[in-house]
Write a structure and sequence with these properties.
This protein has one helix and eight strands. The protein has one helix at residues 145-149, and strands at residues 6-12, 33-43, 46-59, 62-73, 82-92, 113-120, 124-130, 136-143. It has an eight-stranded antiparallel β-barrel.
């Protein structure tokens, strides 16, 4: 399963144009950034997750942004594997900045975001989403054991 594991986005068919509709999509993310989903513990189908935006080069001293989130997995017959999350708070390791804007690269506080799972095998997680123009977008996440060890 996904509980207690980290997942790094390694590929998306969506380019950097426009805002993202789904939480996991790469559109609208800053150049050189990587998405990591750090899944916490679950009680039934509900759990906690950190949505991380990591930067490969420090941007004004910023290494990463972390959106503390609640999440759930649909186990019903209509959308089995649909992963939804809603971010609650943003944390950052930048020194001296305490008031970040509410928007978080397409994630809005109180808005539910979705990862529509089309493949999951414990090592790879593939999502299907839709761009604003209606095009189908696929994103691939792989298990990030290095991130798991550092937390």
């Amino acid at each position: 399963g996904i509980e207690g594991k980290s997942w790094r986005m390694v590929y998306s068919t969506e380019g950097g144009s426009g805002s993202e509709e789904g939480g996991g999509s790469a559109g609208g993310l800053p150049y050189g950034s990587t998405v990591v989903l750090r899944i916490g513990e679950f009680m039934g189908t509900d759990g906690k997750m950190d949505y991380l935006l990591k930067f490969n080069k420090q941007i004004m001293g910023l290494n990463e942004l972390v959106a503390k989130s609640t999440c759930s997995v649909d186990i019903g017959v209509v959308n089995p594997g649909l992963f939804s999350f809603e971010y609650e708070d943003i944390k950052t390791n930048i020194f001296g900045i305490s008031n970040l804007p509410v928007g978080f690269f397409g994630l809005l506080k109180g808005r539910v975001n979705y990862i529509d799972t089309v493949w999951f095998d414990g090592e790879r997680w593939i999502e299907r989403n839709y761009a604003e123009n209606g095009d189908v977008v696929y994103s691939v996440y792989v298990r990030d054991e290095e991130d798991e060890k550092s937390n």
